[in-house]
Amino acid sequence: MELHGPDEPVYTISVASKLLGVNPQTLRQLEKEGLIEPARTQNNTRLYSQNDLKKLQRICELTKGKGINIAGVKAILELEAEMRAVREMAKKGAEAQKDC
Predict the structure, then answer these.
(1) Distances (CA, A) of 20 to 5, 27, 48, 56
(2) Domain count along the chain
(3) The pTM is what?
(4) What would the mean pLDDT of 20-25 be, rounded to a whole number?
């Protein structure tokens, strides 16, 4: 049974930081750098989704594991998003040709 969808913001910053093994300040800094934009409650509490956590995990992998700086991480994430979009368009195009 799935309790929430992957885009539903449910994790507070303290829970997200524990799950990722980083300091909450790191998450605040990544937000300040524009790498992540968590949802906010009416009381301005940050809430992260499962997809946010996956993105943050990728960011940590690039910065800690590969030693890539924030500018490099931004460029890599943009390229990865573009590649996903191109693959999706190609997939749709192939499916449309099957229907002909």
Answers:
(1) 19, 10, 12, 8
(2) 1
(3) 0.84
(4) 97
